[in-house]
Amino acid sequence: MKVERIRRNLAAMAERSVTVVFSRQLGISPISLPAENKIKRDTAWEWINASVVWSGPDLRGVIALHLSKKLAAQAGEKLWGEPLDPIQPSDLVDLSRELCNMVAGSLASELSQKGFSGALETPTSPPGPPTGGWPAAPITLEAQWTCWEEPLILDVNLGPSL
Amino acid sequence: MNPPKILTVDDSKTIRLLIRRILRPFSVDLYEASNGEEALEVARQEHPQLIILDYNMPVMDGVTMLGHLREDALLKPIPVIMLTAESSSHIIAAVARLGARDYLTKPFQSSSLLAKIIKVIPLAPISPEATP
């Protein structure tokens, strides 16, 4: 019953989590993309990926954020307060991990309000174009936005804790 | 009077740079560490007036570091503000038990962090002559 409530509300929770992080930390509200305008997960964009494992006694899963390198650089300028010269690839990876960490933290807080407590692990950064996540997970979400006209994808895959 | 020493502990360079930017207008000696173990070493050497501490970090997390800090008679009185994406009640309870002065969740507004810092230590703006 509680799991069904999560499934029903996950898109709205993800939307709120991404919006609060981007508006509070970067001063911009990402524009949500409808399903028919899906961004292609291919090499046309230079992707930076970050993911965080969230686990609790009932549910566990992975929250992954994928953004273009250009978006990461613009977000970086906002957060760092100045352009880093030169920007190292590791700076963009670090920034993406931190954004993913914040989005996951906000989502974890929403999940906790619905009765699912859990803790976050340290974010990691898988290389390459974003994969589609974990299709076997009972609760999945793919949400997409544009931000400064650059792509932003959030994948949430949750399943029962073992 | 010497400027207050603040130690920022976060594995994310992004957050360390952000805090550096927030504190830039103030006369502060800022120290940085990327995990709890490194931070304990800096704290023993520098005795900061405030520690801003993340929770999730490699090598040594924030709660473990806070525990070590409280076991050390010299470091025990240093006030700690937790700054973390974690909002689980058991982690908030753990850091409260260990005497963290305040708790702020990421994402955060610069003004919120500044307000919490000012509640713990007075900050003086950098005088115009000192600005390069």
Description:
Chain A has a single domain, classed as Chemotaxis protein chec, CATH 3.40.1550.10. Helices cover about 40% and strands about 25% of the residues of chain A. Chain A has helices at about 1-25, 70-80, 90-115; strands at about 30, 45-55, 60-70, 120, 140-145, 150-160. Chain A has a 6-stranded antiparallel sheet with strand order 1-5-6-3-2-4. In chain A, strand 5 (about 140-145) and strand 6 form a beta hairpin. In chain A, helix 1 packs across helix 3 and helix 2 (about 70-80) packs across helix 3. The longest helix of chain A is centred in the first third of the chain and has 25 residues, at about 1-25. Chain B has 5 helices and 5 strands, in the order βαβαβαβαβα. In chain B, helix 2 (about 35-45) runs parallel beside helix 3 (about 60-70). At the A-B interface, helix 1, helix 2, helix 3 and strand 4 of A face helix 1 and helix 4 of B.
